[in-house]
Each structure stands twice: as C-alpha cells, then as structure tokens.
Write a structure and sequence with these properties.
With 327 residues, this protein is mainly α. It is built from 14 helices and no strands. Helix 7 runs antiparallel to helix 12, helix 9 packs antiparallel against helix 10 and helix 10 runs antiparallel to helix 11.
C-alpha cells in the first residue's frame, strides 16, 4: 500500500499546527514567568531552586536551540522583545515557533495554490513573519495599558511617600494594590531589590522591559532625587498631573484615528481575501496570472502581482502615518 505524500505532509502540518496552538495558549494563559517564580521563591523563602527542577520544563529541541543562540545579539534582541510583550518563552522556543509557523503556513499555501512552489514560498515567508507581528501587537497593547495605569501608580506612590513610606515600600504597595501589567512589573522590581540589586539597576531593567517615555521621566526623577535630595512626593505629583493630561489627550486622538487605522487594515486585507476566494472558486481564472505570454516569454502576472503588493504596502503605511500623532 503506497501512502500519498500529500497525506503525510497534511498530517504532519496538522500536528505542527496543533503544537503551535498549544504553545501559544500556554504562553498567553501563564500568569507568571519562570524568572518571576524563581525570584519570588528565593525572596520569600531564601532557598535556591535545584537545577533539576529548573530544567524540568525544557525540551531537547528548545534546549539545543537555546545553547546555539545563547550569547548572540539576535538572542538578546529576541529576549528583549518577548519580555516587552510579556510572553513567557525563551529565544530557542521562539525560533522553533518561527520554523513551525513557516512550515504550516507554507504547507497551506502549497495545497491551496495547486501545489505551486511559489505559493509555498510565499506562505512560508508569511508564516515566518506571523509570530513577529503577534509579538509587536502584544508589545503595543501592553505599553498602552501600562501608560494608562501610570498616573494611578504615581498617585499611590505619592500618597505612600507622604504617609512616611520609603520608595521601596511605596513600590511594594503598587505591586499589591494595582492590576496587571503595572503590578507585575513593580513586583519584579521589588523582588530584584530584595535580592540585592541596586534600585537604579532594577529601575533600568524595568525601563528595558517597558520602553515608555513617561516611565523614563518618572525613573529619572527618582534617580535624581536619590542623588541630590528633594521632595520626591511633590515631583511625582507634578509628573502625575502631566501624564494624566497626556493620557487623556492620547485617548481622544486614538478615538478619532481609529476609523483611519481600521480602514487601512481592511483595505489592505481586502485584495488578499478576494484573491483567496477566487482561487478557491475559479482556480483557472487566477492561474492566468502565472501563464507566460507568447510575445514576452515571461508571465506578466508576476509583475502585476508584485506591483499590486507594493501599492498595498505603501497605502497601508501612508494611512498609518496619517493616524500616528505624537503628543
């Protein structure tokens, strides 16, 4: 009995897609990262986690990838992007996700495109970019939520400082009283300081995970006050008012520009959706793009599709630029 290779590829692609979905669900629903758990256990009980327990969740593939990319600038960049998006993955796991995504989407493109190598390559390229787009979206969403909570954090710190709390105690109150993501970030700052990390270094690590201009202003005020002195409560109160007004104006601008942003996304996706529908309904009509012309000797459809893709990209970037208003 001869098994069709397409069936084998389909089954393999389905299993890979299932593993990909499981990995994404686990990374999203996980409440605390591995680093936070270790810091919390060490800070609370003072005991060290055994190496066997640390590596209990490691897999041979991701462990091998982590060893290969460890110490490289690419791995450092991946770690920074994952930390900013609050995705609990290691660089090796993220690279494995890229490979699986490229394989699955490439296989889907190969099957839907009439077993065309071109569609397989295009699908693989798109699949390779999908995890990065998701990470960027998570970063932007988390940064917006953090900035929206920043004024409440400053008010809580100001009240704590006026009540006689130290700066560390005020940060600990923030980690307990406010909702995520700001509570998770300041909990990690407090845990790092409890382990002996200087406050300036812990705040720099926070700014590395949350690249916010407003947070940079707050951290600069705290560091300057620690060096030269002054009333930190009044400084933070003034910064809180400024940030509150900026958040209000940004919210109004976001409401006014939402229609432009979603119009750009819809108009960019519409040609691709129409091509996919026509490919399913009338494949012969769409394959006219890839037939060689008698006079020229090469398929003019490639030129038309390439030009259409460039116009879609430029149009999407132009509409996003119109909606990008700095405050």
């Amino acid at each position: 009995m001869i098994i069709n290779p397409i069936i084998i590829l389909g089954v393999g692609g389905g299993l890979a897609l299932l593993l990909l979905l499981i990995g994404i669900i686990i990374s999203i629903t996980s409440e605390r990262s591995i680093v936070e758990e270790r810091l919390g256990q060490i800070a609370e009980s003072g005991r060290v986690i055994e190496p066997e327990k640390r590596r209990a969740t490691a897999t041979p593939l991701t462990d091998w990838l982590n060893k290969r990319v460890e110490g490289s600038s690419w791995a450092e960049k991946i770690s920074k992007n994952l930390a900013r998006a609050d995705i609990k993955m290691k660089p090796g796991e993220y690279i494995a996700l890229l490979i699986i995504s490229a394989f699955v989407v490439g296989l889907i493109g190969y099957l839907l495109g009439g077993r065309s190598t071109l569609f397989a390559i295009l699908g693989a390229g798109g699949g390779f970019l999908l995890p990065g787009l998701y990470v960027k979206r998570q970063q932007a969403s988390r940064l917006i939520r953090f900035n929206d909570q920043l004024s409440d954090m400053l008010n809580l710190m100001v009240n704590g400082l006026r009540a006689g709390f130290s700066t560390m105690q005020a940060m600990e109150a923030v980690s307990k009283e406010l909702p995520p993501p700001i509570s998770d970030e300041f909990r990690r700052v407090v845990q790092e300081m409890q382990l002996g990390v200087p406050m300036e270094k812990a705040l720099d690590n926070l700014l590395r995970r949350i690249p916010s201009d407003d947070l940079d202003l707050c951290i600069t005020a705290i560091n300057v006050q620690r060096e030269v002195g002054g009333n930190l409560a009044e400084i933070l109160d003034t910064i809180s008012y400024t940030i509150r007004e900026r958040v209000r104006i940004k919210g109004e601008i976001r409401v006014l520009t939402t229609q432009v942003m979603y119009s750009g996304r819809f108009l960019s996706i519409l040609p691709l959706a129409v091509m996919g529908i026509l490919m399913l309904l009338n494949r012969e009509y769409m394959m006219e793009f890839f037939k060689p012309e008698n006079n020229l000797g090469f398929p003019c459809g490639y030129v038309a599709l390439g030009l259409a893709g460039l116009l879609i990209i430029f149009g999407y970037l132009a509409m996003n630029k119109l909606a990008d208003i700095e405050v």
